[in-house]
Fold:
Amino acid sequence: MKTYKYLFIAFTFLLFTNTFSVLANHLPPTKKFVVVLDAGHGGKDPGNRGNGYKEKDIALNIILKIGKELEKQNDIEVVYTRKTDVFVTLDKRAEIANDANADLFVSVHCNAAEATQAHGTETFVLGLHRNADNLKIAMKENSVIYLEDDYEVTYGGFDPNSPASYIGMTLMQEEYLDQSILLSDYVQKEFTNKLKRTDRGVKQAGFLVLRKTYMPSVLVETGFLTNKTEGKYLNSSAGQQKMASAILEGILSYKKSINLHSTEMSEEDQISQATVETATSTDVYNGITFKVQLAAGSTAIETKSYNFKGLNGVSRNKEGNLYKYYFGSTSDYLEIQAKQREAKAAGYKNCYIVAFKNNNKISVNEALKSKTK
Ligand SMILES: [Zn+2]
Structure:
């Protein structure tokens, strides 16, 4: 008897949670845009010590200033790899970003060079170095793994000082390269246009910290501590604030550009939609393909489910200056209506059904009238 009682309780609980999850499906999505802020170095690793300044402190100050502003954005969640002066391994930094399911990874550093006149900002994405200078910077930043206890094991025999190691580097970041370059561009433009810093450009090199992140990722070299003037600027609170504001603006511009604006339904579409609701369309329309239009935007976004609130089977089509994103593809009108409900439940409240005949968009009304039996 006792068992039945437990079964009953379990059943009621299941029923209840099921109802709840169905309700939850209809609530607007709450996933925030997650930005991981990574202050280079820390703890026993001071980073470069150009002119006696400490890279680890400057990087942290800039990161905290970016974070302070980013946290004010309601739709952004900020995750830090470190907020204090502690040592964090390069792999751990990537792990933190991956665990947070981040949308963006931004690592902040300061440069150093033997030539004290070297100055300016540059932003890196992961890739094969195009020249020896880029390789040198990656080698320097990567050499911090020597401070890790098991670096040979952790990094699979990767030797930061051996150029050969870089050739065999797996470039999982390739998938996010376009987006990483986009962000780098925004950041560099802020530095150059607003702060009038010298632009050394967007570059590629084999940075270990970017190697294992599964999201668009960049490494910003904010300037050279080895340069007297630039070092002083970067070590000053005012300089750090300016660099932080520039990176912040870059992040916000990037976010804005990849945000798809939900397409509004045209009046004509709305009318045809209303007619359609009452129509008794129950099956297949030969020669017609129905799709659910989710969104449109000027940037090409990968049609992966994580970019589309978890929806699988999204397709992209360039129409004029816009990329349009569709969910589902079928000649069955009932099926596409179900797809539309699914998209709405996922958060695309303004999505609507569109129809194609011979790859040309036609009104849904026209499509439904075309049925021949
Ligand atoms: Zn560094």
In short: The domain at 33-258 is CATH 3.40.630.40 (Aminopeptidase). The longest strand covers residues 288-297. The pocket of zinc ion is lined by residues 40-41, 47, 55, 109, 141 (CB under 6 Å). The chain has two domains: 33-258, 261-369.
